[in-house]
Specification:
- The chain is mainly α.
- It has one domain.
- It is built from four helices and no strands.
- The longest helix is centred in the first third of the chain and has 19 residues.
- It is elongated and about 40 Å long.
- The model has no long low-confidence stretch (mean pLDDT 90).
Length: 63
């Protein structure tokens, strides 16, 4: 797996994931979104997004 998520994209994913997960605990109607928040958090932490491969997107500056 080569990294294809970097910089601001990575920070936004981590922040959004954390906000969704925390929001699910404090605002119960967001509960399903809390589980969805795991996806951007995981892709941000790994630096790799499987959806970017077929779309040909790469926001990481390194090869």
């Amino acid at each position: 797996m080569t990294k294809n998520v970097g910089g601001m994209d990575r920070n936004l994913r981590i922040g959004l994931g954390i906000l969704l997960i925390i929001g699910a605990f404090f605002y119960p109607p967001l509960n399903p979104w809390g589980f969805i928040g795991i996806v951007p958090l995981a892709t941000g932490l790994m630096g790799w997004c499987p959806l970017y491969i077929p779309l040909g997107i790469k926001t990481c500056k390194t090869d």
